[in-house]
Known about the structure:
This protein is of the alpha/beta class and about 850 residues long. The longest helix is centred in the middle third of the chain and has 21 residues, at about 490-510.
Amino acid sequence: MIIEEYFNYRKELLEQSKDDEGFIQESLLLAEILPSMLDAKLIDSEDANNSYLKSNSDNLKINSYCVNESGERLQLFMVNENSIDLTATDDDLKISKKSSYDGQFKRGTTFINKAIKGHLNDEIQDSSPARALISQISSSAGIEQYDVVELFLISTTASVTGNGSPKKFDFDSEEIKTQYTKDREQKKKTILVKKRLIDLNFLHTVLISQGNRETLKVDFEKMFGSSISCIQAADEENFASYLCVLPATIIAGLYKEYSSRLLEKNVRSFLQFRGVNKGIRETIRLEPEKFVAYNNGLTITATSAEIGFESGQNSIKSLTDFQIVNGGQTTCSIYFTQKDGFDISDVKVMAKINVAKETTEEDLEQLITNISNYSNAQSKVSKVDLRSRNPQLVKLKGLSESIITPSGLKWFFERAKGEFNTMVRAAGLNKARIQKEYPTSRRFSKELLAKYFCAWGEQPFLVKRGGEKVFRYFIEELSGEGNAKKATDVNRGFYEELIAKVILFKTLEGLYGQGKNSMGQLRAVAVPYSISVLYKYFDGSKSNQPFDLLKIWISEKLEDDLKSFFSELLMMMNDLVKKYAKSDDFGEYSKKPELWEDIIVSKEIKEFMSSDNVSFLINKYSISKKELKKRHSDQSKSIEVDFHEIYRNVVIHSNGKEYYKNISTIMAEEFDAPSKRKIEMIISHISTKKDLDLKLIHFERDLINRIRANRAEVFDQLPTVNDYYLSDTLDFIVKKYNEVLEAKMNLASEFDKLEKIAISKGIKYASVFGQMAKKLSQGEAPMIQDVIFASGYFKDKKQVPKNIDTTEIVLSELFLRKMSEWEAKTRVLSNGERTYLAEFAYGLKNTNDFHEENIRRHLEKLIDNGFDV
């Protein structure tokens, strides 16, 4: 069954990889897959540079590339085009022979060999996307820089054994011997070429693991020919500790093989040879034998260890889930000092290795965090939590579920990898409903959120770097550990402005375009750089008139004048990047602050931003600092209601008793006694219409994730939810609550209107609306029983009438009068809207296309409040 899950996921990937014309594009597929590789820590950034080149005659191919953060590793990506053929059958996509992949890898290694040796220089035109890459890796500078070339084959195929079970294929590394010139001296070099298959097996594992890093096993005997002598310092219930002395050559060898995968995410990144790192280098150069005395050494964690005992001494043969949690600076400094030609053979480093015993991922993360915080003395370590449970991310998730856009829509914030996919998979036959409610255009991950947030600032080069760099900056700014002096108040106003930034970024991506209809090949550069220009002239030092992001939130799009402005700016930025970049590798150079500093002071930008058209835009879209400060002050004083808990309760209650009874029956042998009791408690709460507390909600979430990871076919055996009246009722309540806040209306009086409508309909529990208003005004969300009672409001239709096509309704004077009379009793609209409608209903004004559009918007509001069409 797991193979079927792979192919289900493949369909989703390919669907997300289609362009506007419905064709699958290899570049779009890569854009979908690279974030998963980032989550697994195989790459440092999901931002790859297009370098498409394919030659059937030379049997070579490459799609794109990136360079790791410390610069010594070139990472190449190649898509197996046969694997994205829509006519391929499942049997075609099951690969059981390693040789099938060897043929694909051969195209990539042929490219690498030819490029490094300069054989492609005269064959490639200057306009080719691969020109910059080929020029770089064939140059002396490139050969000196890159020690490792890592080739990733992207293939949406399932790797299987002869009987159809999942299988992992490993591929041997190759070496390319070459030479280059430095300081007029001829030097020889061996470049390591590593090959890694990214297939459906890998991608599905990352998905269901919710973005956890890929476990790294270091086998010392296999890599270095011998185990590591050690002494056991502690053997406690939950962990064992070992002390050893590691030769620097082993540390350098580990870094060459695994790069930043060795370094846990919460540890600061390599800071070049400044401060302590300069000291490390000088010790290696002048007093290598004293290194062990001067340096604090490494702290390493693992989840298991293979320990040997020979000649009365312990030795470490291998470590599983190897991570350096303290000493990342030492590791990188040793490697790059050796790379610069210094001898490290006499250098030894103290290491403490902590092996956790039977620990959960969460406990291990906490152990790593504590070690990082308590044992680092070299330089400041940020204490921000980069995981999905970060408090700011949790708050943002709650806001995404609580805040509805002016047009009545919601955005889906995927706080944890695979969250949306799991929700869709668990919905069974009703997945189309969820996909329709949250299309791709209104979904974003925490990594994308960081890019959208940071683009509205003066560091577009940071956005281009992507990966942990931009995400860490985002979290530090929110938590008050970055440039901001205090933690950001993550409230309704912040969320609305954040979504405006998302809309801005996504719109610019659309304006720039992709593929043959795009402005060029620099979209990932031009978009953030253009947004930063606007920021600089509004919110930055160039102006005293902040941009009013709320205008984008309200309209949920960019007006035509802003689109026109950005279309011109994007085209100009495309040319400016090429003009001011001091390298032909525009994608990589755009990650440097130097490019931004040159562009923002360029005469082209100054002239463009001083035009009459831009002056008009500044006046139209700006807001005074005083008014903005007052708005933020008012927003910070408002009481926010977190609907996350009640939304989860509604989902669970809507699933029904039989849903969880079936789970309990099907998976009976896989549950321990405590789990069975908790499932029984869920069933009991559904029967008695009681709210599940957070502990039960988290248990249910983990239960669904566990099924998704290990027994996804169980979802196909569960009863399908056919009645969504509870979720539609809650959506209606949340929408009404948002309308009240946006229009600054009185909460009690607006819900009192609903109560009167309910009474007129003869609803049994009409008073529930008044009770909910009281709770909401105090910042409390409704309880499940409130939602159940309120659902009677829609007893005639069972569901809130949503998504009715009002364009099919004839807006006759008689119909308008019916609308006006019904509204006069319920008073759903504002005073101005009420008067506006009445003028057309009683013939005081004639309608046109513009007025009809407004009236239909009012009609939709009436329908949502119970008006019977």
